[in-house]
Amino acid sequence: MNWRIRALKKSPWVFHVNTGACNNCDIEIVDLLTPRFDVERFGIKLVGSPRHADALLVTGGVTAQAAPRLREVYRQTPKPCVVFAIGACACDKGIFTTGYHMVGPVDKIIKEIDPNAIIAYVPGCPPKPEAMISGIVKALSAL
Amino acid sequence: MGTVLAGRGKGNAMTQALWSLFWITVFPGFLFTFSLGLLATWVVRKVSALVQWRVGPPVLQPFYDVAKLLGKEILVPEDAQRIVFIAAPLVGMAGTLLLSTILWRVAVAQSAFVGDVIVVIYLMVLPSLALILGSSASANPYAAIGASREMKLVMGYELPLVLALVVVIVKTGGQLNLAAIAQQTPVYSISGMLAFLVSLLCIQAKLGFVPFDMAESETEIASGVLMEYSGALLAVWKVMHALMLVALPLFLITVFLGGFGTTGCPLAWSIGKYVLVLVLVILIKNTNPRVRIDQAMKFFWVYCGIALVLAVVLAAIGSYYDINWL
Q1: Which residues 6+ apart lie within 8 Å of A141 measured at CB?
Q2: Which CATH number is A92's domain given?
């Protein structure tokens, strides 16, 4: 296995990107980072800048306004990196499927600029922190 | 081989050079301090986790972090001053390495020179200076805010730190030599205690720990000074921070707590002192909120400044009338 990916799996630093979510998934992500779930056990750390990130936690179905920002944030993230689509909206636009202002979902926008991007999906409205941990573990073990 | 055997004098010079290289790269220098620093980083994270009633990261976590960052892509912003942006972390790390090597040599080999305490003061400014340079070169507005805060913070804590060293120099009878200072324990006196406590807070600010982490506050200015750094360059900053985590407590031990003994029983006692300083720093970090930059300036200049002027006066009276506990 590539040593870069190996080290990445041991310390995935995450950056939180909201692309027009209703804030429910964001609250659950913040919940995930509280001492109760203690994701620092797995080396997961929330960082303040996409330059430091190894994983983007993207919530929301990507509005027309947010799409260019999401692309920019993805370009700013040093590779290799993983994109997590957190919640039903990020996975396939959820209840906003027919919304006029929705250009997502997340994987479509990311694949426009990087067809080989690694994207993992954690569905739920909102997904529980346990589901996110399970999703992250599954995605990282598949790398 | 030929050059080594070419003559006794030359051979000795060669051995000397090899020993110096060994000092800098392996034993008290890079490799040793690097490993110890990453271990100390783990202690910081683990004790913080225990304070917050959780389990915390595994022992090797800082090593994984550095390995991962070395394997990542390095992105240099388009508008950045490329050379300064790339050189700044290396300069900072080299300065910290030199600082820790000087301090370890005082501890291990008792080798010191007159005035090295002043050299050490200058070397301790170098990491902050490199941080300011690097973040200014990155052409990012948040990094600029971080740099300006870091500058103000440096101006804030340098005054009390120098005053605290004046207390030590007065207490030890005008010594400017670290090995001579390390023979005495200024902390067993009122003025020495005051100076030690204030320097502990200055060290806190130098390390960029809460409550003085306004230069890299993650929530308001997105990691501030380090914002544009990625990959191996960020790893160099992290390693520099790890080296500082060894060098700065070691400095406090050398100056205030009677030096770092390295043989037999004093070694255990010295490790105890190091752990004490580190845990004090971590507990201050975990029990305080971040202050604003103006609050930090006021704290360092007004409160710490007054306390230390008092301490200098006490120390001067003490040394004039030969009262050791003052």
Answers
A1: A9
A2: 3.40.50.12280
